[in-house]
Amino acid sequence: MLEVPINRITTLNDDQPNMDAPYVLYWMIAFRRVNYNFSLQRAIEWANKLSKPLLIFEPMTIDYPMASIRFHKFAIEGIQDIQKQTEKSKAFYFPYVEEKKGVADKLLIELAKNAAVVITDDYPTYFVPQMTAEAKGSIQTTYELVDSNGLLPIRIAEKEYVRAHDFRRFMHKNIEDFLVEVPEQDPLEYLNLKFDEKLLEPILKKYELVDFNKVNTQDFLNNLNVDKSVEISDVVGGYNAAKLRLDLFAKKGFNDYSKLRSHPSEDASSQLSPYFHFGHISTYEVFEKIISNESWSVENIDPNFVGRREGWWGGSANLESFFDELITWRELGYHTCVKRANYDQYQSLPEWAIKTLDDHANDEREYIYDLSEFTNANTHDEIWNAAQNQLKTEGRIHNYLRMLWGKKILEWTPNPQIALSYLIDLNDRFALDGRDPNSYSGVFWILGRYDRAWGPERPIYGKIRYMTSKSTATKFNLKPYLEKYSVGSTV
Question: Which pairs count as long-range contacts for 343-350, CB under 8 Å and 24+ apart, including other chains?
């Protein structure tokens, strides 16, 4: 088994391992999978080095921001897959879905007291960084954060990249190194010692170990004191669903990706973003699937195209377009969240964007809607209502319409600050891929992040890129999309 690269590891507590402790603990909080997971791989490294068994602890608190049965259901489906995958492994997998506030934190403290080493996930947004930092006070042994977010380590960039072109240049110059340092497909195969469940007898008497493949998930969710106004989505979570979606995309959607990915009525997009956010599948696995289908190798790379959106990979138009989304745009968001602490604040926008938005903040709006009207897709615009209805019911919006959706919120709110608050609220509350560096990239792109000033200068938008429902309807055949998601708008 390859060692985890040092640039993926951040040490929060450099105390020596507690050799009297009976196991190594992997606190799984962001990369909720056993395949292609540097964090799990690092925990196995420590377990084998110290001749200890491995305990994988995956908690889910009940009061995280925007908690709802939608997100709980999606996460539990991931837990079900991991329980099946780890049944015959030497590791012990302990998922814990909290039913009372604060219990999961107490359980972590108890498990950490008996750990020789504690490994957890290095994820740069939402409540995760604060949670992992606060846990340092309760962990009195070696404690490491490990990055398994994407193909590039999130902490290697020397500066913040404010344009996609600049990040592409950085990525193109460095990525070959990281196509060699890949995570193991199945690191559990390398674990030496089998965990003895007797080590957890006192814990299991206090905290129930639930087999989520044997309980009725709906009944379990109904009994939780968690927001039920955001209803569950038909989108199935977990590694198995992610793998099925990847296989379908590679077989069908990928073949027309560069041409049809922006068409709302087509099925050409990967639809993998919820699985990336919940950590159910790794971008490495997706990357390897695509290159194997195209018989691509690093020798295809053309160094003369450094920084270019197309041509650099030396692959098909579909590969070039998909990799720009999978790697450039996705990982740019992660690097921004690492480099900029206020990534989710209005003042994080580029100076030019703030100036032009402020200049037009008092422009007259033809329509103004409050958050409730937006939430319930109660606007004059049939296309916008359909997109919001898709978000509200499924937990996702087609990528192109997501941009239009956001632009109209800017246009139909009293000022850009209120628009941003609505964008974040709706996205984080309903989207299965919300609360994520990549989704914050999308939200802030609406207001000018990673973009440039556009002309002509317009009311409300100023120099911010402009989009209209009329041009969208002209550009695409929206009839199938509207038939599926329409909520009976007056337009």
Answer: 343/125, 343/437, 343/440, 343/444, 344/125, 344/424, 344/440, 346/416, 346/417, 346/420, 346/447, 348/444, 348/449, 349/444, 349/447, 349/448, 349/449, 350/162, 350/448, 350/449
Report the Cα–Cα distance between both ends of the chain, in Å, rounded.
60
- Type of residue numbered 9: I
Among 294-298, 428-432, 455-459, name the one with the lowest average pLDDT.
294-298
Banded model confidence at residue 488, pLDDT cuts 50, 70, 90: low
Convert the pLDDT of each residue in 195-215 to its tens digit: 999 999 999 999 999 999 999
Which residue is it, tokens 């219990």?
103
Is 207 inside any structural domain? Answer: no
From the list 139, 133, 70, the residue with the least C-alpha distance to 111 is 139
Q: What is the pLDDT of residues 43-59, one digit of tens each?
A: 999 999 999 999 999 99
- Residue where a domain terminates, one of 339, 368, 393: 339
Residues 251 and 361 in one domain: no
> In terms of DSSP bridges, do strands 92-97 and 115-121 run parallel, antiparallel, or are they unpaired?
unpaired
Whether residue 1 has pLDDT greater than 80: no
Model pTM?
0.96
Q: What is the CATH number of the domain that holds 405?
A: 1.10.579.10
**pLDDT of 487:** 77
Tell whether 217 is covered by a domain.
Answer: no
How does strand 142-146 pair with strand 9-13? Answer: antiparallel
Domain that holds residue 311: 239-339
Peptide bond just before 187 cis, omega within 30 deg: no
- pLDDT grade, residue 490 (50/70/90)? very low
